[in-house]
Structure formats: structure tokens, C-alpha cells
Here is the input.
Amino acid sequence: MIYDQNKHDFNLFLKNWNPENEYVIYGASKDCVQLIESFNFLLKKNKLKLKYIIDDDKESLGVYKNIYDINSASLKPENYREKHVKNNLKVISFNDYMMDKDQKKLKIIIASDFNFNRIKKFLLSKNFVEDVDFCEYKKIGAIWPFKLENKVHLWRTDILMTEKCTLDCTFCNMYMPHYKKAKHRDINEIKSDVSLYFQKIDYVSVLHMVGGEPLMYPHFAEALDYIGKNFRSKIGHLLITTNGTIVPKQEVLNLVKKYACLVYISDYTDGINYRRKFNQVIDSISKNNINHLIRKDISWIDFGDPNVEKFHSVKEQIAHFDSCTAPYRGLNNKKYYYCHLNTSAILAGMTPLNENDFISLDKNPKAEEILKFDLGFPKLGYVTFCKNCNGCNTGINIPVSPSSQGLRK
Ligand code: SF4
Here is the structure.
């Protein structure tokens, strides 16, 4: 999106979205839980007055004694749960929300990357106005902490540990099979990136250590210990994604536990024959009481052939970028990229570095500049690699089952 001072100014947003009002969240998602949790941590004087949550799935309706039960993906170990979050939250249907006598006063925060476009379209069809009657969770999640309590909050940042992987998946969204000379990252570079990042950022809801296969990285324990020791209190979820082909060393397991990480284990066993090893990984993670989620039922998406340009005119590229809900920003070599997939495409040599697509953290960017970029306002109004990419939840949606994901033939 092209930034427009008359529409996107932070002060203007705040006029419409005052903490004195009551709010509702649309989407009983892990992002909803994370937003409640992050606001609880960040906003000391301006609490979010949340009346209830709306969801379209009948199975989700009801009263939740514990907010962490709202969505199964919002796993958090006891000792890292926010202590004073509002529990006993109600999840109701959109129809029930419309019957609320105060409905006109209740602004909606959409908290779902996956369903954002669908919910937005639905609300627009009911004559709701974006940024007046509803907004995206990342927007309020960035603007409130900054304008109300002078804190810089980003939603999610991915850090590449290694370009190497044990698998060679056809539809890898980090483009690992396209690297000609995959290498491990320099540990000192990772440390200095993270340190520079936290000089600018007060809190990130999700920090994601990713690969390739991150457990292949010989300095993984050192990187995790560095992040955990120095910055754990500034991170909501410290997330690690592995493909379940490597049993973590005991040193790594101890650190994962110590820093209360969440481990996502992608299960490709329907398409790749490594069940025995996968079971060993699960066994070792479970025995060590590690907070984890096996991701078997997620559908991988085909981002399309990265060498083929799919969107040609600037207008098409801006519209495509605006419809993409990619949650993952990237941190690499002192640069904060809007899209980690773009980071990987650059490292793989598939697309050139373009100053539009990142913020140089070592050039002393202003906090507001970082936040506006993070909210989807790169100078051109799109990321230059978008022309080659199908995007996330854009409506193109070519699903890839675990069995067709498989190994590159
Ligand atoms: S469309 Fe653009 S922003 Fe979205 S995933 Fe692709 S490169 Fe990233």
C-alpha cells in the first residue's frame, strides 16, 4: 500500500481508536490470544477493554476460563504465561454481536492472517468501514504501544540460522532447493543482528528461529542461549520450526526448556519415509516436557515458480501485495525485511537486493519509520519480489499436501 498521510497517519488512527472505548476481536485464533497477551504485557496504563470475541466457527463459541484454551496453536508454558490477562472470555457469533445493544460503539479488531481478507470482505459488504469500524490486529498492535506508551512492538520476525536442510522439498517456501551453495550463517553475524534489532525494538510477539533445518546449524545452542539470556523478556513466543528429521542434542533440549520455547514440528511423513526418526524426535521432545505442536494438518501453499513473473504492472503489484497477509518479516545482515520469503530469495540469488524491500537497522531509522514499514508501507507500495510470488491468503491458494510436498524429484 502506498502511504497516505491523510489516511494512514498514526494520530488520525488514534482519534478513531481510543483506549477509552470497548472493543471486540473477530477471530478466535492464535493471533487473537497473542494480541491479548502482548497488549497485556505492553500496555501498562491503557488496557484493551475487550468485551468479547466473534468467531464464525460454531465449535469455537462459548466461554473460555483460560484465554490460552481459545486456540490450540497458542501454546505457552505456565511460567511464561501472562499472569493478569482477562480470562473467562466469551466467544460469540457475528449475529449475536449484531444484536448487542452497544454494537454501534464496539469497534472490531480482525485477528487472523488466514481469514483477514474473507472477514474484511464480509464486513465491507455490511457497510463497515476499514480503519473506522474495523482494523487489522497488527495495526492497533503497533500504533497503540507506540503512541500511548512509547514502545516499539513488532509482530513477528524470522531469523535464518542456516541455508542447509536435511530435506529438499519441492515447494519449500524458503526456496532452499534453489540455493547453489547453501551455507551455515556466521554466529557472530546472527548475534550482532539480534542485538541491533533489540536496540530498536522493545518487544516482538513472535521471534522465529528458522532454516533450512535450524537443528543442522552447528551453533544453534549458542544462538539460542544468546537470544534467551539477553532478550527473552522482550519476546512473546520464542519459536523454533523443525522438520523432525534431527533428534535435538541434550544441550539444545535443555536450552529450549530453559527459555520456554515453542517448537513447531512439521510432519512430512506422509510424503517422505522418515517415520522412525520422526518418532524419535517426538519422543525426545515429549520426554523433556517441551512445549511443541506437530503440524501435520496444515496445508503448505505453492508460492509459484519464483523465476516466473506473474504480476506485471505497478498497479497489479500493489494490489497483489495489499492482498497478501504474509506475517513473517526477516532479519538478516543488519536489514529488517518486510517479507522473509523475499530475504531467502535474495540469499538464494534469485532476486536482487532492493532498498525498497528492507530497512537498514544500522542507519538509525526512526521508530515510526520501522513501524510504518512493518505495517505494509514500503516506499513503492509493494515488495519488488511480489511480482514473482503467489503470496499468502491472496486467493490464488494452490494447496500442497504433505505427500505432494515430498522431496524434489
Ligand atoms: S506476495 Fe510479496 S509479501 Fe507476500 S509472500 Fe510473496 S513476496 Fe512476500
